[in-house]
Structures are given as structure tokens and as C-alpha cells.
Automatic annotation (TrEMBL):
Domain annotation HTH gntR-type: ranges: 2-70
Top-level taxon in the UniProt lineage: Bacteria
GO biological process, one term: negative regulation of DNA-templated transcription
GO MF annotation terms: DNA binding; DNA-binding transcription factor activity
Name the UniProt record assigns to this protein: Trehalose operon repressor
Keywords, ordered alphabetically: DNA-binding, Repressor, Transcription, Transcription regulation
The keyword Transcription is assigned to this record: yes
Secretion signal, residue range per the UniProt entry: none
InterPro entries: Bact_HTH_transcr_reg (IPR050679), Chorismate_lyase_/UTRA_dom_sf (IPR028978), TreR (IPR012770), Tscrpt_reg_HTH_GntR (IPR000524), UTRA (IPR011663), WH-like_DNA-bd_sf (IPR036388), WH_DNA-bd_sf (IPR036390)
Gene3D superfamilies per UniProt: Chorismate lyase-like, Winged helix-like DNA-binding domain superfamily/Winged helix DNA-binding domain
Keyword NADP: no
Organism, as annotated: Thomasclavelia ramosa DSM 1402
Classification via NCBIfam families: trehalos_R_Bsub (TIGR02404)
Amino acid sequence: MLSKYQRISQDLIDKIDKQEIKVHSYLPSENELMKLYNASRDTIRKALDILLKNGYIQKNKGKGSLVLDVDKVAFPVSGVMSFKELAKTINSEVVTKVIELSLNPVDVQMKKELYMDSGNYYKIRRIRSFDGERVILDTDYLNANIVPNITETIAADSLYNYIENELGLKISFARKEFTVVKATEEEKNLLDMHEYDLLVCVKSYTYLEDASLFQYTISKHRPDKFRFVDFARRTQL
């Protein structure tokens, strides 16, 4: 038989799942929940702890318990997948908007990031929206000596489809780095941040089959919308 705090937590979860309590809204205060469920403060806090541990809420000091979107997108950590391929696995309306496409002479920074000595590189910035919410900002830098003639149509559709199926190149592997960073004012304007001021930043370096580095990407994700998944096998050293 469930204890009282478990019954309260399950009732709140049911209301969130049924959207009776809306995502990105705040739960009633502890005092209001005490009256609503005729329960002690300790019982309410235990119930809220269950929601917190299961990813249903985030506690914001001075504001209360923010309801999170538990329908997170599984974003592969170890695989090399285009966003278009990822979108096929998502039960949401997914839209890509290109906000910048420029061809630039290689500079000191890109010489370092793309191991280029000369030539041009493309800079592409794209906003990814899920069900009308702007949740990812992707900035791609591509070696134009390897990947030429990129158009806005190609950028809005799939770079990897163009690279593999039109240019005939074989994408092989990527090196990735994950950090959490504070959102800039520009990023807050470009994305629907709600109460969040942090972004999950994924930097990746992607290589062709011959080990040529052709792409450097900085992808910033609103943290509540994604879960980053991987498969690991134990190896004793």
C-alpha cells in the first residue's frame, strides 16, 4: 500500500502527464499543497522530492517548483547522426531555420579548429524548433575545400545527405565535448529559454573516412528538452 506522500506524488505526476498541470508552469506553493492534500509540510516535501528525482520538476529558489518537459529527445552521444536523421525518431514537428550562411577566408581560429592552412570555410547557423519551440542553436564551420557549393537549401535540409549522396564522401567518426554554459543575451533572444539561463554545449569535430577533418560544430541545447544517451561496456584496466 502506498504511503500518503507517494499517493500525493503520483497524483501530481498524473496531472502533469494529463497536462492538467502545464509544462513550464509552477506547482502550487508548499503551503497551498498542504491545504490541498491535507498533509504536513514534511509529507509534501517528500512527495516533491519524488518528482524532483524523476525529472518532473526543478526547484528554483524563491520561485517554487517549475514543471519540466519530461518528453525529452534522446540525443546520441557516441554516434554520428545528422539532425534530419534524428528528427525521424522524434514524435514532434521539427523545423530547421537557417539564420546565417557565409563563405569566409580562413582565419587564425579556423586554422586551429579545422586544421586548415588556406582557402575558405563556411559558417552556418541554424535554429532547430520542436513543436514550435526553438530549443537548439547549431553553429557549423565547414572546410569549403572539402565541402564546396553549400546553399541555403542544402543547409536547411541536410548537410550530411549532401556530403554523402551528392559529393560522394564517406563520413566516418566524430570527437565530442560536452559542457554546460551560461546562455548569452543573443542566445536567449534566439531560443525559447523560459526560466532557463544555462545551455548544454556540444562541441564536435567530424571526420571523413580518410581521417580528414571537415566540420567543427558548436551545438547548444536547452537543457530540459534532451537526454544524452550512450552505451558503455566495462573494461578492466
